[in-house]
TrEMBL record, chains A, B:
EC number assigned by the record: 1.3.99.41
Residues in Acyl-CoA dehydrogenase/oxidase C-terminal domain copies: 284-451
Classification of source organism: Bacteria, Pseudomonadati, Pseudomonadota, Gammaproteobacteria, Alteromonadales
Organism: Idiomarina seosinensis
Domain Acyl-CoA dehydrogenase/oxidase N-terminal stretches: 39-159
Protein name per the record: 3-methylmercaptopropionyl-CoA dehydrogenase
Keyword presence, Oxidoreductase: yes
Cofactor field: FAD
Length: 594, 594
């Protein structure tokens, strides 16, 4: 595999030239003093070094070795423990954690770049710290002061890690039917009993303690999703000074053997009257989880982006080196037996699709990160509300669209290698296998689409779509003077009109047709994704045009924007046609007809 | 994994009700006596038993175990040797081989069904006999009588297997630059020296001898593809009675560790002055390979179909059993905690996409098989020529479209399982991994597209497209009285017009633009694929309508046809838009811009 090189230039372009995130930082109390362009650059440069030099070199071998399980003990691949120690010492486990508890407190627009680099380096490794970040956030938002002061410093420092225990054998998407029980003890603790599956990082040998956040039902719980509570259940109990005392009554029963992320431990966790503490209000466990879900889901989306960027870098290096066949007469290297495969239109199609989707994806994840930051920090109430709405709308898109297109890109990147892409040694097939899970976990992409079209768009009567369309409409107005983009501007306008049109149509039909939303949701999510990328690509192109005099490499942005509009955006035609068809063709078949 | 059940009803429907292949058989000297509907059914029933009971049950475990390599020896998974022996004894290795040499001599329309079943059961296992079939055909078509009588009976009986040695480390797609050399010995043999890679079944322990067909260059060879000759190089030499004597000077240097088909040995083969015999004319090795390539490429396409069918069966069983969430009010099972996930529109979308593409794919592969049979057997010269043209046009589509859509289907089939689809135990992820290679080997799908649009469509000035479009136009005329299909008929007409339109446009542009063909070829191939399936689906629907009184289950065909037209065919809109864009947007980037 080619060495990974973090796309730092492009990250800076997106952060500062396109979104001007530093202006946001300056307006907030929490960030104005700690963060500016230079500090951000220094942090990301450091993160790049960690990803490039520490994490990436281990990922192939770690995939081969995988995690192993014996007698309840999970052993991670050689080098993981030392790498995790170094990651923790650099403060990267607590990169987004609250500074009050020792975290770095990075805004999401910035940590999104760090996460992308870490995922490019090794998705499996990234999950140990990624899940810890999620657990930190849930605890920080909903835990009692006592729980927070006891657990958060150890987690933010990476001394302890975290896990999220939601799924049970019979309950994945449908958490309302979980069976794990929590019964009150005589002190302030609870006894947790039940079996959880698919628990990422549920058990491992990287650190001495793991803080499980577990969904369970109290004895008096109402049925369904409104009767679920959240509990903190540590692997090892500790005294008031945080010194480990005795093991809790829980164990890892086995690990899954999976298609990919072989180096990530996916555990069956058995809680057998384990001691736990309530996090947040009784029966309010799901909402507590969902407050941090927006961050987590963007993070999972970024796994798709990170893998796709890595695959692109590898494929590009291979395409430049590999000579096979002949290009157009004018471009032939007559002194060689064959030309670089980069001369071939189809190889270009695959590489440019990856490039356009990766750079578009980086802009998109940063944009969503900026909205998350505004939702959290903005002092202006109206700006904050608007950002809240954007986050609600765009989070499912970020999770599903970045991973669906991420899988497509890693498949292209594998195809560029021909037979060598199928062989493990080059690493391209690993990226496909590792990316595939991101379409499934943290809510399948079908569920994301249902969330977008059902809960968000239709659930708000279409209102949640308005800030998004308004922003794009404003932009279309603004760029009217840019005559060289007249064609693309018209395409964007039409694409947005299509989105608005089908949104209204689905809303209208939904009143009488219970099935329509889930029948067209995935196509709808993709449509919204392509429209968002079209907006971002044109926005990037206009900025690049303004700044290319000082930075000539930005001329490439303009070319890639044109490629996106010519070859990628037309995908919406098929999506629109499918959405307009509605639910009828999906419900002709009776169960026995399948 | 669910037990595999061969879709025998659907195979019979396609073979007899839709394509009436028995009428073709009756008109040919070779087949009239040996084959009729009853015989064909008996053979396929027997094949179904082999696939279901013998091959399929081993595939999961064989994937886990994989092939192993030590000191030049390749060991296949437990049970493979015995299964191969039983396959051979049943006559299945020589299923398409010439009866003069002990083969079964099955027409391709029929053997395509057998191949699909074998691939549903286990793609990796199928390759050992599949490559043997290919080698048998190449030898039968181009070998001397002496070579044929010596080797073919042993190969058709499955006593010996075959391999095809084409690729070298620096030469895959571009075979014109291979380096393997053949120098004449003093007798009629040659000394073959060189290294071949990615050789499927190049070495294994299933049988005692392997007959390698090797591309190499004679000392006086012209440069490029016109200087390649084909040689038969056995693993073990044999006397005139076919008794093995001494090992030849060749060896397996290593095997590849791959994403999938773990139980198939992919070998590096070193020929070190190995004794070989010329097959066909000197320097005419590539054309000799290509005469059997049409059969082989359809066979690879069928791998995609077979895996997708298996994935569908598994996903359907899972979807029926798994309860999660609630369907529309009218369909709820109030006595249970949740409904079968088959009630959800998005699950239906995935399953119906698989079903429509699988049944459409089965019709397509059978149609191409029928054309291959007509090209080989038809006594009417005009019918034969027409079939030749259809085979030339449709073979690259069969290879690439069946595998591209096959991968899509196996991914849907995995997604239906949620997290369980990512876990190895259920087998859904293996089907994704095993299918992925079929898009790469035997000419990548990009190369298939280039063959279709460049060599076939543009190379013939559009003429090769005519029998295809004429057949569909005739059909559109014929079904004018079927008023219930007016809408779909109009859609088919429009789709065909789009295909014709972009074909003319590309042909026109190609005169001045060397890059256009390879810039739009993949989209073009997909467009042609969707149009072909649209034709076949409507053809099936009309037949089903006529016959559903006697066979009520055919009502389902009509529903699935409607689904195809509503949700799948609209994909062509985006493809047409991309093709119309041409090559410009792919060639804005200089090499350093990537």
């Amino acid at each position: 595999m080619a060495d990974y090189r973090a796309p730092r230039d492009d990250m800076d372009f997106v952060l500062h030239d396109v979104f001007n995130v530093a202006a946001d930082w300056q307006q907030t109390e929490e960030l104005a003093e700690m963060m500016d362009v230079e500090t951000a650059s220094a942090i990301l440069d450091e993160a790049a070094k960690v990803a490039e030099n520490l994490i990436a070199p281990l990922s192939r071998e770690a995939d081969e070795q995988g995690v192993s399980f014996a007698d309840g003990v999970v052993t991670t691949p050689d080098g993981y423990k030392e790498n995790f120690r170094q990651l923790a010492e650099g403060g990267w486990v607590g990169v987004t954690a609250n500074p009050d508890f020792g975290g770095m407190g990075l805004p999401k627009s910035l940590s999104a770049q760090y996460e992308e680099m870490l995922c490019s380096a090794d998705i499996a490794f990234s999950l140990y710290s990624g899940l810890t970040s999620g657990a930190i956030m849930a605890l920080d938002l909903h835990g009692s002061d006592e729980l927070k002061s006891h657990y958060l410093p150890k987690m933010a420092s990476g001394e302890w890690t975290g896990s999220m225990c939601l799924t049970e054998p019979h309950a994945g998407t449908d958490l309302g039917i979980i069976k794990t029980k929590a019964t009150p003890n005589h002190d302030d603790s609870y006894s947790i009993t039940g079996t959880k599956i698919f628990i990422t990082g549920g058990e491992h040998d990287l650190v001495d303690n793991i803080v499980h956040l577990v969904l369970a039902k109290l004895p008096d719980a109402p049925a369904g999703t409104k009767g679920i509570s959240l509990f903190l259940v540590p692997k090892v109990l500790s005294d008031s000074n945080g010194n480990l005392t005795e093991p809790n009554s829980l164990s890892c029963g086995s690990i899954e053997h999976k298609m990919g992320i072989h180096a990530s431990a996916t555990c069956v966790m058995n809680f057998d009257g384990a001691k736990g503490w309530l996090v947040g209000e009784p029966h309010r466990g799901l909402p507590a989880m969902f407050t941090m879900m927006n961050y987590e889901r963007l993070g999972v989306g970024i796994q798709g982006l990170g893998a796709a960027e890595r695959s692109y870098q590898n494929a590009l290096e291979y395409a430049k080196d590999r000579t096979q066949g002949r290009g157009a007469k004018a471009t032939r290297n007559e002194s060689a037996e064959a030309d670089s495969i980069l001369v071939h239109g189809d190889v270009r199609r695959m590489l440019l699709t990856m490039k356009a989707m990766n750079e578009g994806g980086r802009a998109f994840s940063t944009w969503v990160g900026q909205q998350l930051d505004r939702a959290k920090y903005a002092s202006d109430a109206q700006q904050q509300q608007r950002a809240d709405a954007m986050v609600a709308l765009l989070t499912p898109v970020a999770k599903a669209f970045l991973t669906d297109t991420g899988l497509e890109s890693t498949i292209h990147g594998q195809q560029v290698f021909g037979g060598h892409g199928y062989v493990r040694e080059w690493g391209q097939e690993q990226l496909v296998r590792d990316t595939r899970i991101a379409q499934i976990y943290e809510g399948t992409n079908g569920i994301q689409a249902l969330d977008l079209l059902g809960r968000k768009v239709c659930g708000s009567g279409g209102k949640l779509l308005q800030p998004f369309t308004a922003e794009i409409e404003d932009f279309i107005e603004q760029i009217a003077p840019h005559k060289e983009w007249t064609k693309q501007r018209a395409q964007l306008k039409q694409a947005l009109e299509s989105l608005n049109g089908v949104s209204a149509e689905v809303l209208d039909k939904a009143a009488a047709d219970e099935n329509i939303i889930n029948s067209v949701a995935v196509e709808y999510l993709h449509l919204l994704g392509y429209v968002a990328y079209a907006y971002l690509w044109l926005r990037m192109a206009v900025v690049a045009e303004e700044k290319q005099a000082e930075r000539p490499y930005l001329a490439t942005k303009i070319k890639t924007a044109k490629f996106y509009y010519a070859r990628i955006l037309p995908r919406i035609h098929s999506l629109v046609a499918s959405i307009k068809d509605g639910s009828e063709s999906l419900y002709l078949h009776d169960q026995d007809d399948f």
